[in-house]
Design a protein that fits this description.
The chain is of the alpha/beta class. Helices cover 35% and strands 14% of the residues. It is globular and about 45 Å long.
């Protein structure tokens, strides 16, 4: 299965980006994961949505070609970071490439609640008519205190979290294949 990861942090040392790359490496036998960066995505502007910049067209083409999407979100001020919302706005207009495409949400934060508020908001947003993405439920991945769970090479070292991810990824792949 071909999956793209959309990561809501553009900082160099992002834990959420590390998580996406960890998943890419660990499950390479099971899924083909491309990790997308939102760093060069321009701000959404309705004035230019019909002649969108090349960066937007390239981003949307990658999402369109994927069988499923892994959303990896930090939590900013109790919600989804602006870069993630910006990406969703582009995806929701003109060529609505997310409609019917299955998704899973994960997230990591330094706080104990592991992005629970951001993820609840993101779930709601992904059900909006321009996105309308079926979402895996019952496999919520909230990684709290994330700064204690990765080593300097970007490996997730928390055994319990890794074991849980193993189960969640299997559940996701089994569920998502119904939509392909
Ligand atoms: C945060 N952080 C944060 N953490 C959290 O658990 N709940 C929150 O509401 C917020 N709010 C927040 C706002 C802003 C503007 C920043 C910069 C940070 C801390 C956040 O969890 C931490 O910076 C993570 O490391 C961000 O994810 P990445 O960039 O490491 O992927």
């Amino acid at each position: 299965m071909k999956v793209v990861a959309i990561v809501g942090s553009i900082r160099k040392e992002s834990y959420n980006m590390q998580l996406a790359h960890f998943i890419q490496k660990r499950y390479t036998e099971k899924l083909e994961l491309e990790v997308l960066s939102l760093k060069d995505l321009p701000m959404y502007n309705q004035d230019i949505e019909n002649e969108a910049p090349q960066e937007v067209l390239d981003f949307k083409a990658k999402v369109k070609a994927a069988d499923a999407v892994l959303w990896v979100t930090p939590e900013y001020n109790g919600t989804v970071p602006g870069v993630m919302v910006n990406a969703i706005d582009w995806l929701s207009r003109v060529d609505k490439v997310m409609i019917g495409k299955p998704s899973i949400i994960m997230g990591a934060s330094m706080g104990n609640l592991g992005t629970v508020k951001a993820q609840l908001h993101l779930r709601d947003i992904l059900f909006s008519p321009g996105i309308n993405s079926p979402l895996l439920s019952g496999n919520d991945v909230y990684i709290g205190a994330v700064h204690t769970k990765f080593d300097a090479e970007g490996n997730l070292t928390d055994e319990g979290t890794v074991k849980f991810l193993d189960v969640v990824i299997d559940n996701f792949l089994n569920w998502a294949k119904k939509y392909i």
